[in-house]
Amino acid sequence: MHDYKGKNCIVFGANSVVGMEISTALSQGGANLGLIDLDSYKYDALVGNVGHPGITVVYKTVLSGCEDSFKESVDGVVNDLGSVDYLICAFYLEKKREKQDSDDLCVGTWDEWLKEWVLNYFLMLKAVVPYMIQRGGGRIVFVNATTGYTGEGEGEGELTGGSSVYECACSSAITGMMTSIARDIIPKGISVNGIALGPNYEDNMERVIWATDLWLSGICEYACAQILRLY
Amino acid sequence: MDLKGKVSLVTGGAGGIGVKICEKLAALGSFVYVCDIKEATELVDRINAKYQEPRAASAKCDISDKKDVEATYRRIAEQRGGVDILINNAAVYGPSKAHHFPEISYEDFVKTIQIDLSGAVYCTLLAIPYMKQRGWGRIIFTAAPMSSSGIPAPYLAGKAGFIGLTKYLSQKFSRDGIRTFALALRHVDTPLIRKVIASRGRDVKEGVEAMHKKSLTGKMITPEEIADIYAHFILASSSGLSGTVILAEGGITYLR
Questions:
Q1: CB contact under 8 A, A170 and B164
Q2: CB burial readout B92-107, b (16+ within 10 A) else e
Q3: Is some CB atom of chain A closer than 8 A to the CB atom of B106?
Q4: Fewer CB atoms inside 10 A, N or C side of chain A?
Q5: Is the ipTM of this complex over 0.90?
């Protein structure tokens, strides 16, 4: 990781596998953290990993799909840290996959996925981006899945039940949403780029950290709406 | 091959591209439910007047409301058994007010994505069991290139979502005889494109001419041409053809 000393980073979905790993890596790189997550999750597992001397860590919760709640939490983080340089949008893909039967074709399940993944990402950006505009720049990294491009489940060329119709639709919808948003806000000095998690991503977390570092470090300052697919 | 005995549901069936798809499917022998937010009486009458037997009916439905979609499918099941051919074509070029982030309101975002993406998901999930039972089905999404520029976030989210859906459904259900396709369209000469030009404060006639010129073929694609492409994919006999995303945009998309 590059040196992120003095940078303030909000990690949304901090208790997901990806959120935890990125939070830990950024704290080791010296970044102050605003960790935000859904109200049903706890931060116990994360506290020991990110509590390094000299960095500030703030914990907040949000209510899924509630605009006021997202704004209130982000306002609280910015109040405590002073500003926000980076935003990471992570998602509980592993938890959703565990609960998901790939043969399920339920319209109600779709509504849940859409809210928890696509709509919550939108709400987080709505709450954070005005602060980035105010300070003249920022970097945003979002996480989706390669299944949004391939339609496949885990394992090469096989449908093994890891994926679902909901995951594939949400993941590719996020590509579209973020592509449009990236183009709207890059003139304001804010970059938006993504990481598409591939099969068995939980065992290959070093690649996720590498990709996060690539987008946050400024090496690819002019990249706009690019997504690294980690097959 | 024709489509006699097949039941089609075309969402956004009373709109620019939808009308031509409905007419084309009826001409090929399918019975077509014209699904739209408003009754499509005029179109249904026009189609039925052409043939000796009824080939169309109106299916007024707000596809963003899952209960309304479920009720529509129940009606179709009672009347004709189920849907063999689903064309997910409905969309609004939302949001209604601000088009750029972060000015787009959450309310507008949700409203648009409910129509443009959730509506298609509802229709698709409800169509699959009958198609599986019959061992035959066609699902086509009217999508857009993911790299399209200048398109509002909720609209592009919906259109891009179709790509993942197409890929997944083809892998999951091809063995059940269900084939899925997405047509990624841009620069189709429809009333919607004129509304979009007007919404950007431009002269509509000049805007349309500029779009004709911008296309590498020198002209925008017509809804009739699009309907022909849909029919071609529905009629394709190759069992290996599914999960395909076709760009139909006159060559203007640089990044694919």
A1: yes
A2: bbbbeeebebbebebe
A3: yes
A4: C
A5: yes
